[in-house]
Amino acid sequence: MAHTTDFCGCETTVPAAAIGPWNDTIRAFLAHGASTPDHLARALAAAPEFAQGHAVKGLFCLLLGRREMFDTARQCRTTARQAAAGAPPTAREASYLAALDAWLGGQPSQAAATLETVLATEPRDALAMKLIQAIRFVLGQPEAMRRSIEGVLSAWDDHPALGYLKGCYAFALEETGEYAAGETAGREGLLLAPDDAWGLHAVAHVYDMTARAGDGLFWLSGQTHAWAHCNNFRYHVWWHIALMHLDQGQYDAALDLYDTEIRADRTDDYRDIANATSLLSRLEIEGIDVGPRWDELAELAARRTGDGSLVFADLHYMLALIGGRRADAATELLRRMSRDAARRDTEVARLMARPGLSAATGLEAFGEGQYAEAFLNLNAARRDMQSVGGSHAQRDVFERLTIEAALRGGFLNAAERMLADRTQRRGGAVDGYTSRRMDLIAAARQDPLQRNVTGARA
């Protein structure tokens, strides 16, 4: 079979009739474009025998973190194998099928490692690069994300997708504590790829971790074009803007963004639910009445108690259930997590066992007002929370709830230590949340009879 090359210069078996939509698929995926599945559908319609394309579709399905998508991914694997039998893929393309096999076998880390072997021989493969970043992000592995990028940097000097690589590098640098370097890489990347919402938001993460909410608002507010083309990732960028308003005590602005942007489409995508539940939780910690906004989230989460695709998703479903006072559904979610944890046969099951169960139990107790129990369980999970995936900014809602449980449960010294640790991880920067909590602790210590404090506004 005659081979061609994609826009990265990688040899591919995709026929000439499909190379255009295949290149469009890669470019759109790099930019978190809403058009990604449409481009892929066009590529596969033009080349139904393209095995790598079917495997990539399966990997995309798994990244959605929904139990029902595993069946779709299995169908993609079957189709990919049939296509490979009739039109043998290159060794590079075959690695994508192997990665899909690994993830469907319950080992997403192995899927990422398999794609790393692609970069070892084809360091300019932009699709492999971005998929590795996406998988390891879900797994909470920022050091591996950074190593992967640094392993190919020297091969990308003249790469047409260099801006997207810099955006990925910016995020990995930020998540590993290199804030200044991350900001620089993100800004450089956006100059090369103005539609790279990931790189844009990586810089926003730097501002979050360095307590520069005002700078973050300035950075994001004038660049809505950089995420207007996105899939639901655009809601996440608006979430960052809401967090910056929240840090400055501008609660009405945060709630307005919740209504007009963050939940503009009331989807049940776990990433959208994570945006919503974590923002409402942060607002309630500050004593803000969020009204009936929990109701629709709790209803959606109650339908996902049996999912179990990602611990990160389950914990945000629990936030929705305690926020919406759905005690029976919260209990069912805990029971299912416990059943999954007992299996220990997949990476996700092992994470359900630790830290998932402790964290979920702590959240349920927090919702019931059992703050001492909530603190003990959330604190037990705290050291391992990185492994549930997501970013520092996303997991910070669990850090805040752990601190809040300590404050309300009367563990002032523990709360103070956690605040100090949180500040240290932010390079010594004190944000609005920490400042307000330190004031509460100081006030509580002036009144020895006060056993606990709350985050309610004065």
What report would you give on this structure?
With about 450 residues, the chain is mainly alpha-helical. About 70% of the residues lie in helices and about 0% in strands. The protein contains 23 helices and two strands. Strands 1-2 form a two-stranded antiparallel ribbon. A hairpin with a 5-residue loop joins strand 1 and strand 2 (about 10). Helix 5 packs antiparallel against helix 6 (about 110-120). It is globular.
Please estimate the helix content.
Answer: over 70%
Radius of gyration: 22 Å
Shape: globular
Mean pLDDT: 96
Run of helices and strands:
EEHHHHHHHHHHHHHHHHHHHHHHH
Cross-sheet strand order for the largest sheet: 1-2
Give the low-confidence spans: none
User: What is the number of strand segments?
Assistant: 2
Number of helices: 23
